[in-house]
Amino acid sequence: MTKRSNLLIKNSIIYAIGDICPKLFTFLIFPIYTTHLPPSEYGIINYVNTIDTFLSVISILSLNTFFLVYYYKVEGTEEKKRLMGNLSLFVFSFSVFLSGLLFLFGPSLFSAWGSNVDFYPYIGLGVAFNLCNVVTLLPTCLYRVQERPLPLTVLNVSKSFLILLFSTLVVTLYPGGAKEVLIVRVIIAFIFAIIFLFVTRKDYILNINTSQLKIALKFALPLLPGALAYYLFSLFDRVLIDKYLTLTDLGIYSTASTLALMLNIVSNGAYRAFEPYFFQTFGQERFGSDFKRVRDILLVSVLVCSVFIGLLSKEFFELFSGSQYWDAYKYVTIILIGAVASAMGLMYETIIIAREKTLTDTIITVVGSVVSIGLNVLLLAKFGIITAAAVFAFSFCFTLVLKVKYSGVEVNHLRPIVVSAIAFILIELFTFGVSFNSILLSIIVKIAIGLAISAFIMVSMKVTPKSVLSLIKK
Question: Which residues contact 225 (CB under 8 A, 6 or more apart)?
Fold first, then answer.
């Protein structure tokens, strides 16, 4: 293995740690929130997080992608610093302008929308958090192009850990609610914005280059609709639940989603590991067989995780949350279907991109978001939370079908579909059909059932632990 390969592996591991740890911290604080906060307060926190996600995408205007591409085309250290300074100044100025508009007109806009969440203090604190967070986005890209993953990971993990720590203290000792948790986030985000600016102070020269900004915006703005469509697709159901249902409903659904989407830690981690391998072998004679092998292993991995998350969801909520949240388990299995479809969609999306069909990929995402939003608008008020879970599952399954079709990969798809369908039917049956007065007994029995279903999945897909280790080694 070359020195360059070793460096890439080392950097990938560090990036993976930086990506996974914040998600784990979110999961660790989950039982604390659901024990000490009512569903309405937890719903507010998740709602503001959703708004922040959209604001982050709009604030950066996809200029981070332009920076990653254009950085290598700029010659000379000083010109790279000027590029960093030019883009940073523009992004921050635009974010300040956007935040100012929201502070002025946000209360009226959200009131007209019919939101149950007050703009002040909750959404206003989210806007402030986003403004602080935007400062760190381009420095984050800078660390990536300079191949300096360790300081970036240390900063991101430290930031997430401090938010976890002080949010826990605020909720358990103060005791505080959503407002106090959001204040903690803003304070820590502000501190780390200053830290990012300080440690990268020698890497940028502040300047305004309008011709360069025109090139940057011409490149980046066409990417914005696709980025927004993805988040509309995967997160906008929270906004619609707030509009059509109650904050308690929002809290219950957010709780179910938090548990189910822990599956993303497994799927995203595996995908990041194999993505370069797909690009490397694409177009070669063995690609079809290699793709099928990796796909089957990824599918088995996420299905097995789904088995245990789904089967033990009821017991998990009873052990680690207040009684107001216990009904959330009813929606976990349904959301897991969408999470598995999303994980498998990543693989086929990679092939679409490798075929240079980026417009096709964007259209599929847009179509998925339209289907998701449309079905929720039509059905959510009538049928309640179950609609959001079912639409989430259906929308990702629908887009997975489109990605499979347009990827053009000629491998067998029938076996994975049948095995996945049987697995989720069994999960649903045993999640609701097995229950004892003793939680410990329920856990033991469901673990045994989960092992049996997992064995069925592995045998049916012809995947063994040995084959997994062999592929990883290769």
Answer: 362, 366
Contacts of 2 (CB under 8 A, 6+ apart): none
Neighbours of 206 (CB within 10 A): 11
Q: For residue 223, which amino acid is it?
A: L
pLDDT exceeds cutoff 80 at 471: no
End-to-end CA gap in the chain: 12
pTM exceeds 0.70, yes or no: yes
Q: Look up residue 85 and give its two tokens.
A: 């300074």
Write the CA distances from 353 to 29, 292, 347, 359, integer angstroms. 36, 18, 10, 9
Q: Tokens in use for 269?
A: 């981690």
CB distance 60 to 137 below 8 Å:
yes
Q: How many CB atoms lie within 10 A of CB 323?
A: 8
Structure tokens that stand for 195 in this block: 């830290």
Mean pLDDT check: name the lowest of 30-39, 111-120, 215-224, 463-472: 463-472
DSSP line for 316-361? HHHHHS-GGGGGGHHHHHHHHHHHHHHHHHHHHHHHHHHTT-HHHH
- pLDDT of residue 102 exceeding 60, the answer is yes
Residue 9's pLDDT is what?
58
Please name the residues in contact with 328: beta carbons below 8 A apart, sequence gap of 6 or more: 252, 253, 255, 256, 259, 313, 317, 321
Say what percent of the chain tops pLDDT 90: 60
SS3 223: helix
Question: How many residues are recorded in the chain?
Answer: 474
Q: Are 365 and 229 in contact (CB under 8 A)?
A: yes
What are 389-434's pLDDT values in tens digits?
999 999 999 999 999 999 888 788 889 999 999 999 999 999 998 8
CB atoms within 10 A of CB 38: 17
Give dist(CA 436, CA 302) in Å, integer.
Answer: 27
**How would residue 20 be classed by pLDDT, with cut points 50, 70 and 90?**
confident
What is the C-alpha separation between 474 and 471, in angstroms, rounded? 5
What average pLDDT score do residues 232-259 get?
A: 92
CB 95 within 8 A of CB 59: yes
97-105: long-range contacts at Cβ-Cβ below 8 A with a sequence spacing of 24 or more?
Answer: 98/55, 98/58, 98/59, 99/127, 99/128, 99/130, 99/131, 102/127, 103/127
Q: Give the chain's radius of gyration (CA, Å).
A: 23
